[in-house]
Amino acid sequence: MPFTLSHAAAVLPLIRRDGSGRGPFVPSLLVAGSFAPDVTYFAASAVPGAMRFGEVTHSFPGVFTVDVPIALALVGLWRLVAGPLTGLLPARVRGRVRALAGNGPRWPASGRGPTLLRWYASAVLGALTHVVWDAFTHLDRWGMRILPVLGEKIAGSPLYWYAQYGGSALALGVIGLFLWRALRGAGPGAVPDDASRAAGRGQALVLIGGCAGLGAVLRVARWLAYVDESGLEWKPWEIIPTLCFGAGAGLVVGAVLFAAGQRFQQHRHSPVPTPPEARPDPLKTDSHD
């Protein structure tokens, strides 16, 4: 689909409103898995050849192999940026968002085998929903061969095109409704003292928004140069996926830079613990008898 984030709608039935997973599934890995096959398309903003690797990530062998570490990497990236980014939210919703976002995978002290299996199954299922969905919304996929009617044109565009863009918009609406209901049902949560106000919100928006805008401009410029050189005819809406991939890649870079800067500042200003031997012993007092 043009909007990779829309793929998360397919795994929402396995996620409760409190952010926990149903059955053995891990919510963050379900969602990350649903994004994983498209990651190479975003990476192509910096590594043009990465687009071709999308054939692997969108295959069934890819679902059970390469898509899993990609999903794990996405969760790791999310854990890096989640705290600093939620710190930019208004205080009235910040605690609720952090409460919902706190159900990520954690390395267990014991029983690691079953835990790893749950992680793997969650990532695979998320990626599988992506690949199956795309099969019926993209040209030359196996879903098109099962339902050739999707290639029939209505008002000059094939049915799979309507499934792509209409499905993306509908899925975004479903995700928005899920998040709204989840936030309404979430407790106020704890707001740390250092997050009592969204300091530097303007600078963060400039950094992240600037990176997203730059990524979109560079990706679109490269695409336009390619179609111009190739002499291909294109319709205005065909630029949307390229625009989204470029903006998304830039947004990730901006978010990582912001999060890294915030964590560096927190580490820099955190108090240095006093060594035990340097602390005064309250039981020892000078005797002046």
Q: What key attributes describe this structure?
A:
single chain, 289 residues, mainly alpha, two-stranded antiparallel sheet, 2 strands
What count of domains describes the coordinates?
2
Shape, principal axes of CA atoms: globular
Q: Can you give the mean pLDDT?
A: 85
Spatially, the strands of the biggest sheet line up as: 1-2
Q: Tell me about the largest β-sheet.
A: 2 strands, antiparallel
Number of strands: 2
Taking all Cα atoms into account, the compactness measure Rg is 23 Å
Number of helices: 11
H/E element order: HHHHHHHHEEHHH
Distance between the termini: 85 Å
The helix content is 55-70%
Structural class: mainly alpha
Low-confidence sequence ranges = 193-197
Q: Work out the strand percent.
A: under 5%
Pfam families: DUF4184
InterPro entries: DUF4184
Biased composition (Basic and acidic residues): 278-289
Keywords: Membrane, Transmembrane, Transmembrane helix
Question: Please, could you describe this protein's structure?
Answer:
The termini are far apart. The chain has eleven helices and two strands. By secondary structure, it is mainly alpha-helical.
